[in-house]
Specification:
alpha+beta; 7 strands; 435 residues; 5-stranded mixed beta sheet; 13 helices; Heat Shock Protein 90; two-stranded antiparallel sheet
Amino acid sequence: MSQPIRNEANRPALNWMDGLWLLFLAGLAALPPVGEIHKQLTLLAFGVVQLTEGWVVTKTARRGPAYVVLLKIALATLLIDHTGEVGINSSYWPIYFLPAVTAAEYFSPLATLLWTALASGAYCSYLYPALQDYEMTREGYGILAIRILFFFLAAMVVNRFVVENRRQIKLYQELAETLAETNRRLEQAQAEAQRSERLAALGQMSAGLAHEIRNPLGVIKGSAEMLHQKLGETNPLASELAGYISSETNRLSALVTRFLDFARPLQAELVPQEITPVLDRSLRSVALSLQGKDGGVRVERQYGANLPLIPLDESLCEQAFVNLIQNAYDAMGSGGGILRVTAARANSAGRDGVEVRIEDTGPGIPAELQEQIFNPFVTTKKTGVGLGLSIVSRIIDGHHGTIRVESDGEASGQRGGRFVVFFPASNEIASEEAS
């Protein structure tokens, strides 16, 4: 027989409908022939099967419904045999509706027809002994055919309702999943919009402050350098102090430059190209800048084969990767560790592209900061103003991608921080712009 098309694992062990079934069976037991012990035992067996049906279906997996239907056909056949002098004329012939309706509840329309045919065959098996003692009239054959057709009619009506109910449940489930995904995307879009608004406001403020600060810094730096040159060896202490002023002014100037980078509108010129060469250049750049100071960091590269081309602004993308890789080195500190850089095909929110993971074995990012780490002025470093990751986030947004942070074993089971960057492929960006 065909396998059932419904999983009954979640069906309750006992419900009010089962109680109603037992009440009907008790009513049959109270009707003639009351003194027939085999009839009472058969009805009792029907009650036991009804009560344990859910358990049988759950424990015997896919074969459970077939076992239940077979048991009910066998019990119906026994009941007919013990409730009439001639079995086929028994007043209890409607008992065969039970296995037919049960099959309709569990199986497909075709399988329901087959099970109903088997139940009808079991009922018709009493036709042969009846013909041995009695002559069957044309009217009798007509009555028998009507009964059998009613078996099929009842089974198909119930099956149609069950199939339609399954279809509606499936539609509701798909709709619920679609709504959940839509809500998730709306929340993500809302969060990104709010972050963009904050970044825009902070960017305008940063640009104004940076321009106002840069001019005085230039005057201070020039004055300090002139003092250092004029004092020379005549006043070593004053010359040293002027040198401190000049070096700290350079540091402040670099900080102002970062503010301007953060405030400057992003102009990404996207050209489809391979992403792995950009990753390699970023790794080399950081390694050269930290030559002898990396604490023995071991770099592991894992690049997938035949990665799709990604629309990139080479310089901006390299700037973002350098920042993330530099952060990984800083997180591992002088003790060193493993820096793992992977690039693989991926799909995010229905878009195909490449996912880049930059993982380190440092202490990781505290859970309370993971939601805020890309906001301006949020940092885990003792020194720094927390603009680096904000700039990285803007660069990734300019590439139509996404970035997220993972920590404390969420992804690969190891301690450390993981930045996961997704870049959509060329055709995905073209589709977004067209829509």
